[in-house]
Amino acid sequence: MKYLKSDIRQKQQILTDEGYQVSLVRTLVSDGTSANALYRLTSWLVKYKLSPLALITLWLNRVINGCVIGAGARFDKGFVIMHPVGVVINSKVVGGNNIVVESGVVIGDEKGKAPVLGSNIFIGAGAKIIGGITIGDNVKIGANAVVVKNLPSNVTAVGIPAKVIQKGVNKC
């Protein structure tokens, strides 16, 4: 639960950068914030060995938000789900700071190995990140991209399969 405050502040900053005058209340009721809160609550419940309650919060996230984030998934501060419908994140996924996820994103394992994500990453709507790969820091992944190989830091990747189209990307 210690990261929930930073998640909400990060989302408020993103909405403000998009040209909206955003209050804390508007951020709290915006699409995706409840998915973030339920994910953080689930993680907290698992950490303190309250797994039966964690199953309830996992179910609530699926029913209320149309979002499945495995109980073991770990993201540092600033994790933001902009639009939760169709988001599926495997329980083995590990992510750094300031990761933004749009709708329909799948981050999944293959043969028991899941992606490791760096910090300052934007993942566009419908993108898929699959397998035991590493995504570097400061990476933008375009809408509907399918990432099945490692991506270095400071790049933009798009396509099926994803290919780097821009290098030298600053912080996302």
Give the CATH topology.
UDP N-Acetylglucosamine Acyltransferase, domain 1
For the termini, the CA-CA separation is 24 Å
CATH level-4 homologous superfamily: Hexapeptide repeat proteins
Order of helices and strands: HHHHEEEEEEEEEEEEEEE
Beta-strand percentage range: 15-25%
CATH architecture: 3 Solenoid
Average pLDDT score: 92
Estimate percent helicity: 25-40%
Q: Kindly provide the radius of gyration, computed on alpha-carbon positions and rounded to a whole number of angstroms.
A: 15 Å
Pick out the low-confidence regions: none
The number of distinct structural domains comes to 1
Number of helices: 4
Major sheet attributes: 6 strands, mixed
Overall description:
With 172 residues, this protein is of the alpha/beta class. The strands form 3 sheets. A 6-stranded mixed beta sheet has the order 3-6-9-12-14-15. It has a 5-stranded parallel beta sheet with strand order 1-4-7-10-13. The two termini are 24 Å apart. Strand 14 and strand 15 form a beta hairpin. The model has no long low-confidence stretch (mean pLDDT 92). The protein has one domain (4-167): Hexapeptide repeat proteins (UDP N-Acetylglucosamine Acyltransferase, domain 1), CATH 2.160.10. Helices cover 29% and strands 23% of the residues. The protein is globular, with a radius of gyration of 15 Å.
